[in-house]
Amino acid sequence: MDIIEAIRTRRSIGKVTQEPVAKETIEQILEAAVWAPNHRLTEPWRFFVLSGEGRGKLGEALAAIAVAQAGAGLDAEALEAKAEDAKKKALRAPVVIAVAVVPTERKDVIELEEYGAVNAAIQNMLLTIHALGLGAVWRSGEPCYHPLMNEAFGLRPQDKMLGFIYLGVPDMTPPQAKRSSAASKTTWIEA
Questions:
Q1: What element of type H or E holds 50?
Q2: Contact by Cβ (8 Å): 167, 71
Q3: How far apart are CA 38 and CA 115, in angstroms?
Q4: Rounded to an integer, what distance in angstroms lies between the CA atom of residue 53 and that of residue 50?
């Protein structure tokens, strides 16, 4: 598959089978990630590959965050139900790759560029997954950025989990997609 085709045909695949994904395949996906462009070669990405019982680490973090966000007023049974629902999210795929940004402390590096580099690494991963015939969805949201998530994965306060790539063999037809033309979003400024 050429790169243009991969870019145009990649879709988020939110439903995958529980069939295992070979470690060598996961390593190939991670190798693609580290070739993302990054200013000053800081390599600010960190990957946590969760499979089997290892997905419980994410499930426990999601459960703790769900309970913390529930606030007062819920009884123990309702809190337990929230925690159990959150834990199940970690089991939606046989492999979850958690991706974090760990910004350098160098004064000559703009922190926002560190985030851009990790987002580019995630795109490399998603395109590689698609090219290998697998399916994935990049999930993020408020729980990613919660201090309890950092704590669960041993991240510093200035680090951030940027998302979870749920990876597996597709168990759905890829959705159709449409994009606005580049021309509709482009201003040409010429001399």
A1: strand 45-51
A2: no
A3: 9
A4: 8
Nearest-angstrom CA–CA distance, 71 and 73: 7
Cα 9 to Cα 26: distance, rounded to the nearest angstrom: 21
The model's pTM is: 0.95
**Residue 133 corresponds to which tokens in the numbers above?**
């015939």
Give the Cα separation of 67 and 72 in Å (integer): 10
> Which contiguous run of DSSP H or E holds residue 135?
strand 135-139
Q: pLDDT truncated to tens, each residue of the chain (191 aa)?
A: 899 999 999 999 999 999 999 999 999 999 999 999 999 999 999 999 999 999 999 999 999 999 999 977 789 999 999 999 999 999 999 999 999 999 999 999 999 999 999 999 999 999 999 999 999 999 999 999 999 999 999 999 999 999 999 999 999 999 999 999 999 999 999 98
Report the alpha-carbon distance of residue 127 to residue 173 in Å, rounded: 17
**Residue (of 123, 183, 165) closest to 3 by Cα position:** 123
- Neighbouring residues of 150: CB distance < 8 A, sequence distance ≥ 6: 156, 157, 159, 160, 161
Only one residue has tokens 């974090």, namely 100
Q: Which residues, 6 or more positions from 65, have their beta carbon under 8 angstroms from its beta carbon?
A: 86, 143, 146, 148, 149
Contact 91, 83 (CB under 8 A): no
Q: Any bridge partners for residue 47, and if so which?
A: 99
